[in-house]
Design brief:
This protein is of the alpha/beta class. It has 13 helices and 11 strands. A 7-stranded mixed β-sheet has the order 1-7-6-5-4-2-3, sandwiched between helices. A 4-stranded antiparallel β-sheet has the order 8-9-11-10, with helices on one face. The protein binds pyridoxal-5'-phosphate. Keywords: Amino-acid biosynthesis, Aminotransferase, Histidine biosynthesis, Pyridoxal phosphate, Transferase.
């Protein structure tokens, strides 16, 4: 893979915005360089554009050097940056599995990029050969979500490596739910594959969807490209501070994951017993995809009773299915009680 050739010409040639904090980032007695207000500390100061302290911390928990980490306003930001850096509008295309997370298509549409989709098999696995078969010389990105949303399954690691080894562009593996599938991350493979980009997030297992913090792991050369085109201060001070604080509570995160995994098993068994439940798909994530008789009817009934799940029945390969997030024991109990009133 030749990163320089993959990169859009305009991005290669542009001169990035240089902020006051880029020009000088050390300690000083007085800062009069950024037109900041001297009052209302610490919020008066612009945040570190490269989030150095936070990346050090994340580096510690992920075992990945800081120069291979990009932090974004949710995973949405690196997804969008991948398109803006590598895909020429109206010309290039990406390949992806179907069904999968909706943001890849949205980001592609915003950037006027064609999405070439291959339907998953009945068991929701994918074939690297099929994805590779869709690709041509304008295929710049391949998206694989593992565990996949909304099908909940991990993708086969051998197939993913085959894709990474043979695809001519970048392979983006979205691991938003990886904390619910211990040991399955491709992160240990990162150094072996210069065309691999791994997305993770603080929105799920870490319980921080509200602070908007997503991670991309890739070669330092790819990270440099993201940094070149991102908004200069893309992660605000409040988010950086809160994340630093909450990362200290990793044991609590692990306890949440344990609880949610136990609840997932329990919820799955309870749901199975209902006569209108047809099938519960195996899950490696914090949600269950459940096939029902009359998914829409049950969805409407639950909404009327104050319980909101996600109707996926119009999604390819998910007909008559609802996506149900595993909640707290109390929340899951309410769901089960409401469903019992139906029989
Ligand atoms: C929830 C989710 C994310 C997280 O997105 P953020 O922007 O980080 O909140 C990413 N990918 C998938 C597949 C998801 O389901």
């Amino acid at each position: 893979m030749n990163l320089d050739k993959l990169l859009r010409e305009n991005v290669k040639n542009l001169k990035p915005y240089s902020s006051a904090r880029d020009e000088f980032s050390g300690e000083a007695m007085v800062f009069l360089d950024a037109n900041e207000n001297p009052y209302n500390a610490p919020y008066n100061r612009y945040p570190d554009p490269l989030q150095r302290q936070l990346k050090e911390k994340i580096s510690g928990i992920k075992g990945c050097a800081p120069d291979k980490i990009f932090l974004g306003n949710g995973s949405d930001e690196p997804i969008d940056l991948l398109f803006r850096a590598f895909c020429e509008p109206g010309k290039d295309n990406i390949v992806s599995i179907d069904p999968t997370y909706g943001m890849y298509q949205v980001a592609a549409d915003i950037n006027n990029i064609e999405v070439r989709k291959i339907k998953l098999k009945e068991d929701y696995s994918f074939s690297a050969d099929e994805l590779l078969g869709q690709a041509d010389e304008n295929s710049k990105l391949a998206f694989v979500c593992s565990p996949n949303n909304p099908t909940a399954n991990l993708m086969d690691q051998g197939e993913m490596l085959k894709l990474i080894q043979n695809f001519k562009g970048l392979v983006v593996v979205d691991e938003a739910y990886i904390d619910f599938a211990p040991g399955a991350s491709l992160l240990p493979e990162l150094d072996r594959y210069p065309n691999l980009v791994i997305l993770q997030t603080f929105s799920k297992a870490w319980g921080m969807a509200g602070i908007r913090l997503g991670m991309a792991f890739a070669s330092p050369d790819i990270i440099k490209i993201f940094n070149k085109i991102k908004y200069p201060y893309n992660i605000n001070i409040l988010t950086q501070q809160k994340a630093l604080e909450l990362i200290e509570q990793e044991t609590e995160k692990n306890a949440w994951v344990e609880t949610l995994l136990a609840e997932r098993t329990k919820l799955s068994e309870q749901l199975k017993a209902f006569p209108f439940v047809v099938k519960i798909y195996p899950s490696d994530a914090n949600f269950l995809l459940v096939k029902l008789h009359d998914a829409r009817g049950i969805y409407d009934y639950l909404v009327e009773n104050g319980v909101i799940v996600r109707d996926r029945s119009k999604v390819i390969l998910c007909d008559d299915s609802l996506r149900i997030t595993v909640g707290s024991p109390e929340e899951n109990e309410i769901l089960i009680e409401k469903l019992k009133e139906l029989i």
